[in-house]
Protein 1
Amino acid sequence: MIILSEIMTATQIEQNDPNDVMVELRNVNKWYGDFHVLKNINLKVSKGERIIICGPSGCGKSTLIRCMNRLEEHQEGDIIVSGITLDDDLKHIDTVRRDIGMVFQQFNLFPHLTVMENCCLAPIWVQKQPRKEAEATAMKYLERVQIADQAQKFPGQLSGGQQQRVAIARSLCMNPSIMLFDEPTSALDPEMIKEVLDVMIDLAREGMTMLCVTHEMGFAKTVANRVLFMDAGEIIEENEPNEFFDNPQSDRTKLFLSQIL
Amino acid sequence: MAVLITSPSPSLPPPASSVGVVGWLRANLFSSVLNSVFSLIGLFIIYKTVPAAINWAFIQADWVGTTRDACTSDGACWVFVGVRINQFLFGFYPPSEYWRVVTAFSLIGILVAWLLVERTPKKGLVGIFTIFCYPVIAYFLFYGGAFGLPAVETHKWGGLMLTLILATTGMFFSFPIGIILALGRRSSMPVAKSISVVFIEFWRGVPLITVLFMSSVMLPMFIPENMQIDKLLRAMIGIIFFQSAYMAEVVRGGLQAIPKGQYEAAEALGLSYWKSMFFIILPQALKMVIPGIVNTFIALFKDTTLVLIIGLFDLLAVVQAAFADPKWLGFSVEGYVFVASVYWVSCFSMSRYSQYLEKKLNTGHAR
């Protein structure tokens, strides 16, 4: 287990330039048919920042991060990732997707490919890396998530925790500067949550910019710079983690925290 | 009372009644009174039919000879098939050119075997050769008209050769066209989608026999005299379009079974539409619908017999034509049994291969 003070030091070392904005959302609105799922979202994420998004089911937190790599389309407002505005231009979408890694609740590994092939596919066919180089990179990240010995297996032969670690390694192989996590531990058996969180904590220590939808409050306290609380499509409360958990301001936040803690 | 076992108990052999022949019979044939009754009825039917059939087809059958006088016993007269075998295989193809047909089929046999058997080298290269070069080679071998090979008009093609040509070209083209149509039908682009839907629903909505009839009787009325397309080619195109529509729906079933997360993961990694289809979606979707694809192939193979109504002499038509030979009247049973066995062996092989393929491609992802 990582010690808290260690993290704090790490955070202090890479003091971030607040002007180095990685993701910016300006007045973003989104509807599913008539349902107003994101209401006037404004958010700035600086380089190296780690943001936890929580909130009750259906509050729009997954939709929010899925808009950032255009898995969902927003109808109003601007989303700017690494200086590129997400619009209908496919080139913009492609560039943004290469720069953002995403980890899903259901892992979404490709079941017909081995772990190694899962990791190498996008570097080879999107980034045009030579196979040897892609495999070396993949091995490096697989070692980092401690699953290198399973590289030739198929995803179906691994446990949930192992699959999720492969999914993280697969995203890292694209060398992204931002990582999105959409409830990465929600589909896991309890005894496997820690191995995935450890990998994520490790990633946070290295200064990765992370946006993470999760209900793992221990993890939030350990790594987050900020916690956003969403309800009914709005960011209701935003605070530094200890303040957020110890001294919630709005009634809805208090209610939510009393239900999950 | 507490339990304590200090050494493991020895493993004993299972009771004799649950293993071996007795065990098998008990489990599979006589597990209840009703099942025993059915088993006995089944055994009785087998006893009454199978020995008689074997007796007719093999033991009492006549195999050698050149005329019907050679058939003296009570069994099948395979002499009828024997003397006409060339016609059954090649139709009216000139005997001096048989070697071309044999070469073409041997070549595709070797190529396909090369691709299907495991651990043969250079599969990629052989695959490309089979897809792009072989059809050209086959065209010149079958039709000729170049490289010193005399042209053999398609109305002389017939028999098993014609059946196989129709079936393989049908499979070869309907598979990729079907995939494109299935992707089109699921596309978000309105034009691609409506073209696919209209194409699929049109061809799926008409019987093949009508398609063949239209292609051979109606179509020539609408196109100018000097632009007439070969009858066989017209039938082929009809079969290809017809089967593509079925293939498209089979493939679409597979596409729909792929979880949305697979598309999203591919998108999130930055794969383009065609790359994510080629590397992620289609390999999984096609694997899932192998039984459906092979089903369509088998149906296509047998449906080629319908070309006899437009005057093409496929295997069945050629054999039926031989029944009319006054020297060989009364041997239709042998002819039909021969045709049926050829079809059955072909279709059964396809079925077995598909089962093998399903096992081989199973990466245990059903969790």
Protein 2
Amino acid sequence: MSRSGSFFTGLFACFALSFGVAVLAPHYQIGTLIPSFKEEDGVISDVYPTAPGGNAANGRSVYISEGCQACHSQVVRGSESADIERGWGVRRTVARDYIFELPPVLGSTRLGPDLANVGSDKWRNEPELDKVRPSKRDSAWQFLHLYHPTAVVKGSNMPSYAHLFEKRKVSGHASLDALKLPVDLAPERGFEIIPTADAKALVAYLSSLNRSSPLKEAGAVAAVAPSKK
Amino acid sequence: MTEVASHHAPAPQTSTVTDLTLVSNRSAIDAAVRPAVVSLFLSGVAWLLLSTLFAAAVAVKLHFPSFLNWSFLSFGRLAPAADAAFVYGWCSTACLGVAVWIIARLSGRAAPGTSLVSFGALLWNGGVLIGVLSILLGNQRPFNGLEFPLAAFIVMFAGLCLVSVWLAITYYSDSTPSLSVMFVSGGVAWLGWSLLTGNLLVASHSVTGVVQQLAATWVSSGALWLWIVPVILGIAYFLVPKVTGQPVFSGPLGRSLFWLYFVTAGVISASRLSGGPVPLWLSSIAASGCILLLVPVLGTVYNLFATAKGATVTTASPSMRFVLFGLSVLGVATVLSAISSLRAVDYSVHYTLFDNGLRALLLRGAASMVLFGAIYYIMPRLSGCEWLSSSLISLHFLGSAYGGCMGAAMLILSGLASGSALNDADSNFSQVLELGNSYYWGHTMSFVLLLGGYFLFAMHFLLMAVRIGQPAGEPTLLNSHHEH
């Protein structure tokens, strides 16, 4: 074999090693996981995770399209980090949590809080006794947060997603979907702000995010996310 | 022959390659590849300006979230578009241009059909354009560094294939390939392999869940460490001996480090996912790889500095100033990467802007500077005239060096400040963000320097592309006091 031939053979061996270590070996370890479930007397229950469906699946596409993953992760790390203490989850997330995600949206930067469990009632982004902590983050809160983030989170660095809403003239009765805005944000008299289909799907997706189900490999689950305060 | 003593014969206006006969004359090689290389550089410079404008807007958005807040310019779309345009637009097209020129020069011939390269460059740029527009219009993938949709990568890959075919025909070596050829061809081969394999895996759903993320990270990490960095090391191994007129300090050392580099850089991709839902052994291998990478990178940088040692031309030659600065920054960035891969540090800085700062340091402080150095060396040989003004070159150096390092340093400091608070549950999340906020102004200001430097370079480059410069034969040196 010529010297150039040996060189390119060696190069290919390096590439193969890289692919084998970084992609192929993990695929054989965690790429073929199935949902966890309980089986008693031939009856299967507590299946987790399940494939996303309904409007939440559409919302997932909106989430990716808007690039939410540029600022939000969906990964809760273990006890070596403060993620669980912050209230972002009750256990660390593991590979099985993401088996139905095509593609997964793990995110890489936290300019905003982690959203792995934002649909859970236990999720919080402030100490438990914080005075400004919202009583609940329901759909109405999420819509308002998307439309004008600082209206619900003082000093928020999140940009407004007002383009996911439309300003509409009220004809007859006001729409049930219309945002209940504070006076300084409310449109002029006779108009209302309505979430578009994309906004509704996005909020459905956020509300569906809950990776709290116990998984053996994820270790112990905190009943309530602990807090130092 | 040194750059100072070299004489550049004016390049013929038309290619002398008309049939399968391969040319061996240097100026004939330059003339043959000129249209292809200049078109790659030209498109690269256009992407450089556009992506930096995008990145400047992203920097402002960090402290003024409502700035330019239209849907197609929202932070979540503009940030990945800016990064992808910089990596695949500027860095990659400039790397391809350099690869075409260096492989032809070191092979001593240019294969016929350079229009194949020009067409390949057109396709590559078309793919990047499709990718950037797709992201801005809301069609992106959620993988950091691999946001372009599949269609964009298909077009880019087709372009890369055309360029690679020409390179493969041109490549010739009757002995062991030189270090420069090894690094450059290694980088090109990796780019084709990873774009094809990674995209096929992700798009065909052959891998699912977290493994999709691993495959995507393998591609995006490789684009930096196994495509762009090897090419800039190849450039350095070409330019430093040429300009100084001194042989490589140690060839055997360089070859050993080459193989160590390609083995270790290939296993570090998962370091960006450590602490997440990936196998622990993979995180450990990646972290170990980041530390082991210090040996080939610092060893190669040492080998190159030892080559340049004692040469007086290093302070006067524009290309040497840019290349040696870029190599120094590469060394610093690799040290920071190794430190941040340590478990205790990683838990603190992971998910902060530290990673973005490190990436900016590598791309703007190291890779771009070496690429500028290469363009300063190559263009006079393609255009048959010398750069018009040494002052413009000096200003470009100051703007891009200070701007690039300052912006990266601000993000790294921001990451360090917010990272320690992020890992302390007693800090409210808004406090975490405020700690990082204080560095955003400095980050934004760095773009004034960057844009100023890049604009001057673009102007200077355009003049050179249309052969407006000083007469050939007397290279434009930075300590020269006479300007025409």
